[in-house]
From TrEMBL, chains A, B:
<dbReference type="InterPro" id="IPR000792">
    <property type="entry name" value="Tscrpt_reg_LuxR_C"/>
</dbReference>
<feature type="modified residue" description="4-aspartylphosphate">
    <location>
        <position position="53"/>
    </location>
</feature>
<dbReference type="InterPro" id="IPR016032">
    <property type="entry name" value="Sig_transdc_resp-reg_C-effctor"/>
</dbReference>
<dbReference type="InterPro" id="IPR001789">
    <property type="entry name" value="Sig_transdc_resp-reg_receiver"/>
</dbReference>
<dbReference type="InterPro" id="IPR039420">
    <property type="entry name" value="WalR-like"/>
</dbReference>
<dbReference type="Pfam" id="PF00196">
    <property type="entry name" value="GerE"/>
</dbReference>
<keyword id="KW-0805">Transcription regulation</keyword>
<protein>
    <submittedName>
        <fullName>Two component transcriptional regulator, LuxR family</fullName>
    </submittedName>
</protein>
<dbReference type="Pfam" id="PF00072">
    <property type="entry name" value="Response_reg"/>
</dbReference>
<keyword id="KW-0238">DNA-binding</keyword>
<feature type="domain" description="HTH luxR-type">
    <location>
        <begin position="141"/>
        <end position="206"/>
    </location>
</feature>
<dbReference type="InterPro" id="IPR058245">
    <property type="entry name" value="NreC/VraR/RcsB-like_REC"/>
</dbReference>
<feature type="domain" description="Response regulatory">
    <location>
        <begin position="2"/>
        <end position="119"/>
    </location>
</feature>
<dbReference type="InterPro" id="IPR011006">
    <property type="entry name" value="CheY-like_superfamily"/>
</dbReference>
<keyword id="KW-0804">Transcription</keyword>
<keyword id="KW-0597">Phosphoprotein</keyword>
Amino acid sequence: MKVMVVDDHDLIRKGIILLLESYADIEVAADAGDGNEALVLAMQTEPDVVLMDISMPNGLDGFTTTKQLIQQQPNIKVVLLTMHDEEAYIRQAIQSGAHGYILKKSQGSDLYEAIYHVYHGQRYYRTDLSEEQIEKMMKEKEKPVSPLTLREQEVLRLTVLGYTNKEIAEKLHISAKTVENHKSNIMNKLDLKQKHEMIQYGIKNYFSDMR
Amino acid sequence: MKVMVVDDHDLIRKGIILLLESYADIEVAADAGDGNEALVLAMQTEPDVVLMDISMPNGLDGFTTTKQLIQQQPNIKVVLLTMHDEEAYIRQAIQSGAHGYILKKSQGSDLYEAIYHVYHGQRYYRTDLSEEQIEKMMKEKEKPVSPLTLREQEVLRLTVLGYTNKEIAEKLHISAKTVENHKSNIMNKLDLKQKHEMIQYGIKNYFSDMR
DNA sequence: CAATACATAGGGGCATCCCCCTATCCGTAT
DNA sequence: ATACGGATAGGGGGATGCCCCTATGTATTG
């Protein structure tokens, strides 16, 4: 099985490569430090399976890269690797088309298991969520990850970062009044009464891998 | 050199162990998944060098564990491993007494370098900060990590979480006016002009490993 | 075709925040 | 002893935010 490893942390990537190479039937064909590099190297080396971290820099995160990779090489299998075990992450993983999902805290043998299963065309999601929940999410492929619209998400993100309505309005090229409306719609949709509930919802859902 | 590896992510830990074992003069004597386990195993196996992640669960993070480890075994050397390259982290590392500091994004060879140097009694801090800045921080061992007072830090933290002045005042049992004053003092101290700069400073310094 | 969702924008009004002051009390350091 | 930093609190005024309302254009969907 030809595997490519994608992770922006050099040290971690090297360690994972050694882990993979300890299996006789795995060959690490390439490794990349970001999404763009991954797309290029996948074309050149044509790996069977790509093992990819979700948190990556330069705007091209693991989800986005997975989508593009599968579009580019439809037969490629992708296993996402992350420390996050939250519904929003798993839903995004499913919607990105990833074939596998494993946690950094999981056992070393899960890594091989995941690659083996997806190589043979099987799905492999190892999370704390139940198989039923995963199945349900697979059937809801079109359901938005967030109850908020894209615009509302942008407004919320900028609000968490402390920008005033006026500043947000300038950034998004709309009027401050519209920003107010978006905020008010967010509060209604999520059935929130106080500003701090909205901020904390935003932090939890859009900044959980802040760094 | 007998080395112990401490990281709560099993997969990452196993990878790093393989990386270390590829060096002939390094022997991985033990590995631990949290701070408590690390303290116990360090007693039992007496490693020369401990390579430890900073972000760890159960309240006992890398800094705290380092302090306790050095108190328990004064001849032990600790190398901290993290993805954070920010002044606050490095200052805390210095104050915890850690002998080395390397980033997950750094090169594989830095890992060996760090262990080799601290084993031979030298300090090894590989960050984007200049050697002068590190030297300065070493001389300021007692200086608080934050330029803000404890009260200001509390106010900032609650502000980031979206609480209004009135709500913060109630939580801290002070008047809303005093909260305003603290905020204004924060802005002056940090030489900030806009609210979002303060919020983002707060996020960076008090919520960087949110999850 | 009608209904719905989404993004846009404004009016009016009240609450809150932010900024520039002044002020007191306490503890520590020079 | 005096000076300084830290925490507390208030006045006044202008800016901003938030809430309730109305309104329009577009796109999608039943």
